[in-house]
Backbone:
């Protein structure tokens, strides 16, 4: 009963100092909402990346070698024969400009591949056909292009059958990739894919330093990894220093741990603002105690125990923090949802909201207890004497 | 009801020790109306604080209603102030954010009374001091005399053994002050023990016992000397 009346009293006191109370709460609102927004955007982005990476397939291995002896196209077939391996596709990056007439497509990566590549990378075509075994064999001057390349050179018209220039030579476009979005540093939308034999011709080198391997299934990934490593050791004299076989899963794990650290860092930074907000609460409560010394004296003379005064001031700090915390959560979710409209991925979980709310209560208790204790310790005579 | 024996209290003011009370012997019987008279700095405020259990003596004994105040804890003193003592201050000391009714309710709340019961009781006491139509007014909206009457209602709310009135007319004009004194007298006639502290001998003469205090020492003067 007394408790309920103390809460009413707390609201009354907060209301009488509207400006001061709202400024104090603003500190908490900023703190709580920034925790929710930053952690929300952090988790949202992380989830986004994770789903993109897993969409590439968890049974894919990426191999990169940097040895004196290089892999040749013949090796692909041998690797594909290894236990656990279903397919292997080479990947060569070529430095070349892509143009049509006087228009040059900027920031385009020209890549030499074989007929297995699209299947392994899970790329699909929107029109036309893929690069075939025959194209590779014949060193055909054909290419498959990404949507951005198509847009900049062909202006939304169907590119299939059209001619473009790569490193000064004419190439026929045979297929258009479906828009993929960028992921893991490669942007399929701005690539031009050629038969690997043709690409070798442009670059002048037949060394294959990167290849993609598709394992039979998820459980044979590690088996395929060992077999490939073994093959590279024997044929190329490769060591762990100059070859790397990465599974998507290990990449996923690394990325997730980086993201978790990042989210923790963001939460940490936001928590600092929450602590600053808490100090604001303490400051205001201390001022309030000083201002109301007389009231404390009167209350003590009327029979208030130390605990009564302590509880009164503590509840006032708590009400302030709970109020600010609730507004902060609403502001955080509101702004986060608004951020979605600007291309950020914002995801809030009930856990984070509960944690932020709990933190607000904690701030109220921790930063409220000192002023409240000070109030409760006031000597009633000194308190009464003050004007 | 009140019995003080050789009570002393020394304050440190800067570097010098001030003996506010010097071996004071003082007692009050139930139903008395005692006036403690003395100039400022005579130690009457200290005596008032001591009687009101806001302060404890350095040495000597103080028994209130049979309770040894010297050996009471902070918590017990708070309880005694709540149950046995009603304060009336010179500057009223009402809580400015609360209205008249809520002000009277404060000691009842600390007593642990339910909201409904304390509201009813507070209303009765406001009626008793003639302010039943002013219950929703805050102290700012009341005159000095009205504020002091709210304070008296608040002092009476817990049905205390003693009313301690510290210069209750000090902030009021002559006429209103006299009304307050009359009200206290009436309470006394109904059996309420009252201790009044004042520097005004004119007021002191209206009560049945006057005690003078000078330099922390008391000289009890029975009423028949006047």
Residues:
């Amino acid at each position: 009963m007394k408790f309920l009346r103390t809460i009413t009293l707390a609201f009354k006191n907060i209301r009488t100092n509207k400006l001061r109370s709202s400024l104090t709460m603003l500190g908490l609102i900023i703190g709580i909402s920034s925790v929710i927004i930053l952690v929300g955007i952090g988790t949202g982005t992380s989830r986004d990346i994770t789903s993109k990476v897993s969409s590439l397939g968890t049974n894919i291995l990426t191999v990169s070698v940097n040895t004196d002896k290089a892999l040749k196209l013949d090796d692909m077939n041998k690797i594909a024969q290894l236990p656990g391996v279903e397919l292997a596709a080479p990947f060569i990056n070529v430095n070349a400009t892509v143009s049509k007439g006087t228009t040059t497509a900027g920031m385009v990566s020209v890549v030499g591949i074989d007929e297995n590549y699209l299947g392994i990378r899970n790329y699909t075509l929107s029109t036309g056909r893929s690069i075939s075994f025959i194209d590779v064999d014949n060193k055909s001057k054909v290419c498959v292009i990404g949507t951005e390349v198509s847009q900049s050179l062909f202006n939304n018209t169907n590119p299939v059958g059209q001619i473009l220039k790569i490193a000064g030579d004419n190439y026929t476009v045979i297929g258009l990739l479906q828009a993929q979005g960028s992921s893991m540093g490669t942007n399929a939308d701005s690539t031009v894919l050629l038969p690997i034999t043709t690409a070798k011709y442009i670059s002048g080198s037949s060394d294959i330093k990167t290849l993609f391997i598709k394992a039979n299934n998820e459980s044979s990934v590690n088996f395929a990894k060992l077999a490939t490593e073994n093959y590279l050791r024997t044929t190329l004299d490769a060591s762990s220093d100059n070859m790397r076989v990465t599974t998507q899963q290990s990449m996923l794990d690394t990325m997730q741990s980086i993201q978790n650290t990042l989210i923790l860092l963001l939460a940490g930074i936001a928590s600092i603002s929450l602590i600053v907000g808490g100090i604001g609460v303490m400051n205001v409560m201390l001022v309030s105690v000083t201002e109301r010394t007389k009231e404390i004296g009167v209350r003590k003379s009327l029979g208030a125990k130390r605990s009564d005064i302590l509880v009164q001031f503590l509840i006032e700090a708590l009400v302030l923090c709970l109020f600010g915390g609730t507004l902060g959560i609403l502001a955080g979710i509101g702004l986060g949802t608004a951020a979605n409209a600007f291309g950020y991925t914002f995801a809030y979980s009930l856990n984070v909201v509960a944690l932020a709310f709990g933190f607000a209560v904690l701030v109220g208790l921790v930063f409220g207890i000192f002023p409240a204790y000070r109030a409760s310790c006031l000597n009633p005579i000194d308190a009464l004497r003050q004007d | 009801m009140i019995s003080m024996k050789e009570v002393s209290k020394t304050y440190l003011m800067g570097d010098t020790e001030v003996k506010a009370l010097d071996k004071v012997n003082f007692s009050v019987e139930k139903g008395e109306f005692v006036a403690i008279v003395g100039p400022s700095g005579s130690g009457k405020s200290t005596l008032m604080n001591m009687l009101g259990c806001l302060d404890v003596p350095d040495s000597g004994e103080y028994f209130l209603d049979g309770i040894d105040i010297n050996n009471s804890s902070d918590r017990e003193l708070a309880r005694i102030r709540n149950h046995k003592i009603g304060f009336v201050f010179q500057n009223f000391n009402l809580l400015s954010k609360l209205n008249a009714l809520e002000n009277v309710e404060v000691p009842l709340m600390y007593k642990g009374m339910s909201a409904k019961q304390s509201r009813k009781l507070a209303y009765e006491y406001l009626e008793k001091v003639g302010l039943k139509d002013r219950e929703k007014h805050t102290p700012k909206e009341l005159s000095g005399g009205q504020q002091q009457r709210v304070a008296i209602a608040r002092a009476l709310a817990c049905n205390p053994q003693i009313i301690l009135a510290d210069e209750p007319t000090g902030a009021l004009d002559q006429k209103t002050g006299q009304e307050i004194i009359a009200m206290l007298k009436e309470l006394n006639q109904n059996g309420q023990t009252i201790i009044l502290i004042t520097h005004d001998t004119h007021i002191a003469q209206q009560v049945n016992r006057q005690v003078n205090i000078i330099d922390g020492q008391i000289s009890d003067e029975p009423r028949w000397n006047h």
